[in-house]
Amino acid sequence: MASKINMDKGKNATVFMKSSNNKIYMELKDIIREHALQFLPAKSLLRCRGVCRDWKYLIATPFFVHNQSYSFRNLSGFFSQSSTSEPSFISLNPIAYGVPDPSLSFLPEPVDIRSSSNGLLCCQGHSGYNPYYICNPATKHWHKLPKPNNDHGSDPAVVLIFEPSILNFAAEYKLVCAFPSELDGYEFEIFSSCDKSWKTSGEIFLGNLKILPRSGVYTNGIVYWAGRNNRILAFDLSAERSQIHNGHGTLGVMDGKFCTASILRQNLSVQLLSNAYANTMQMYSNIKAWESHLFTLDRSVFAEGYPEEVSLLVNDTVILRKGKALYSYNLKAKETKHLGNESDDGKRRVVPYVNSLVDI
Question: Residues 6 or more apart from 6 whose CB is under 8 A from it?
Answer without folding.
Answer: none
